[in-house]
Design a protein that fits this description.
The complex is a heterodimer of chains A (about 140) and B (about 475). Chain A contains 6 helices and 5 strands; from the N terminus they run E-H-E-H-E-H-E-H-E-H-H. With about 140 residues, chain A is an alpha/beta fold. In chain A, strand 3, helix 3 and strand 4 form a beta-alpha-beta unit. In chain B, a hairpin with a 2-residue loop joins strand 2 and strand 3. Chains A and B meet through helix 1 of A and helix 10, helix 15 and helix 16 of B.
Amino acid sequence: MAEPTVLVVDDSPTVRKIVQMTLQREHIRVITAGDGLSALTSVADEMPALILLDIQLPRMDGYHICQIIRKNLQFRQIPIIMLSGKDGLFDKMRGRLAGSTEYLTKPFDSAELVRTVKKHLVNWQERMPPQHEGIRTRLRRRG
Amino acid sequence: MEQQDRIMDGDLQTLGLQSILKMLALSGKTGTLFVHSGPETLSISLRKGQIVALREEGVPQPDLLVMLCLVNKLDPQRAQKVREYAGDNTQVALAMLVERNWMSPSEMQRRLEFAVTQSISHALRWVDGRFAFHRQLVPMENRMQALDIDSTLLEALRQADEWEEMGETHLTRTAVARWLPEIHNDVRSLGLGQEYIEVLCLSNGEIPLQAIALVLMTPEARVARIMTRLLELRLIEIVDTALENEVQQDLSNLIIKCQTILTRKQQSSNPEQHLLGLVTILSDCINGLLAHHSRYAKSLRGRGQIPYPDVIRYLERRFSNQFQLLSQQQYPILETIEFTNGRLDCTSILTLDKLVKGERLEEFYWEAVLGLAAFLRMVFAELLRDEMGNSHTGRNLNFAWKAFLTEIDQEIHQYQIYRAQRSAQLTRGRDAAQPAPMGIIQDWNHVPDNEGGPYRSPESRRRLN
């Protein structure tokens, strides 16, 4: 069975590497982006099965990215887990209003991260019909 | 596979794999035999009673190209070229090696035959499990000449017997070994044979015993014996995946915690507070690492509940000398920090503002930041080497750690730029505004970018917005 792809969007290389390392151990393919615009490019290119999204990002914040993805018919089904150092109710509400599926507060526990990601990856293949494959995936398939 | 295609099934306790294969060979059957035991499945394709292909599931598939490179049987550049076409498909890779004359056709045949024999030999040791024979042939990659079941069985049984003869051993076919980090002896002086050296070369913390046997075309029992000897010689150690998982999780949590605090502390209002924040983060991180090491240090593992004074003694023995050297030779401010109860007590630094003010205080903080950052590096390097050695997990953790250190270094670097610019301004006397009293920049968050000390990196400024 193919591995699901998770996109990790965080401006901190430390967080990106730790999340990548943790999820790869669970046989999950991980791609990363360090800013908002690269994140959107990766979503279009790779059609990830799930997105882990930091809120404070250069060029475009996480709320904005979340709203853009939710407004796009092709990508709106992708679960988005917000990652943030802010744990106030207001921030969580704002994340929910922007369309996030779940909210994880930093510093998060690796086991909790894996649990949450796995919870939202159940039936990930059903959410991704072939015509919704990302550009890069399609190119790979052709190549 | 359709139910009606199944012409025979049963459990291995009633009819063993050896008998099933002999029966199918005698009757010259064509079809696929599936044998299941626990998570493992063996699919053997037969044509007219001969083995034409075999697939083993539930066992990690080794990367043959990497292993051939490790034992100097294949040039890494050639391996790369083959991988570009063959991907992870071993059979295609072997065929390409033959096609390019980098391997003889007979060697390919021997390798494929060995893989079949090894898998059957392993399955012959299964006690519980089920089998089913279907008359349809499952499509499988097949580059091998058909094998006679009798001779294959004979060799497989010999290998299985060899394993049984080993008796009690803690090694399994999935055991992964790696070189011990501290090898003081010259390996050549130990007089090890070629086989030993090859197993040693393949013990890189990633390749299981079964895969080493496959690439060397040596029975698993023989590889297990070699590994046992290498263990006795303290040249390798066995990797404990569960433990590595636990260590990775613990260190990841610690690094993420420190990184989050680092991000939050960037919001301090002046350089003194910022440096103080860094002192706190660095000391918390060091203490976190020491606490982690008290649980996972190699010499403390597997000894059950160890009295806490023993743990403290171990930590002090391991790290206090380095800390003292650092404070005596490079960063005297560290002498005010106590290394007691297996942790750093930075109270004296954190309350230094009650004794010293202004520029002098900032200098002390700065020295403490540099000293603690140096000690932090030492602690992590020592800890990782001891707990993880040369493992894949160790290397991964090292990458994550370097990323975190880069973030700390960026903060330190920004402060260095601020200091340099401030001192340049004071020297030139060009600053129209009154110099900040006692080295504290007024209105910290509005220091101009180009002049007057861009203390904050664009990254930090963005995070504050």
